[in-house]
Amino acid sequence: MVPVSVLLALLIVGFLWYRILTKMGFKGSALWILLIMLFFPVTVLAAFIYLALFPWPVQKELQKAKAQRSHSQLPQPVDEIDVELDRMRGEMGLNQMKKRKREN
C-alpha cells in the first residue's frame, strides 16, 4: 500500500509542478529538465535558484511586447486597467448599449 501512495503522491506533485512551470511560460525541453530537476534533492536547489534569479519566458515576452509598443506610432494608453476594461466592455457588447432616458 505504501508504494502505491508514494507513487500517487509523486504523480500529483509532478502534475502540479508541470502546471506551474507551463504557466511561467516554459516549453519543450526546458520544461522537462526543470521538472526532472525538481524531483531530485541534489538538483532542487539549483532549480530554485534558476527560477528565482533568471527571467521567466513570460517576463521576456512581456518586455518584448512593451518594447514593440513603445516603438510603434500608436498613442500610449494612460492606464492599462482602463484599456482592459474597455476591451471587456466591447466583448460583452456594453459599449453599444444606448443609455435609457429617465422619466420623471
UniProtKB/TrEMBL annotation:
Top-rank taxon: Bacteria
Native source species: Floridaenema aerugineum BLCC-F46
Name of this chain's protein: Cardiolipin synthase N-terminal domain-containing protein
UniProt entry keywords in alphabetical sequence: Membrane, Transmembrane, Transmembrane helix
Transmembrane segments: 32-56
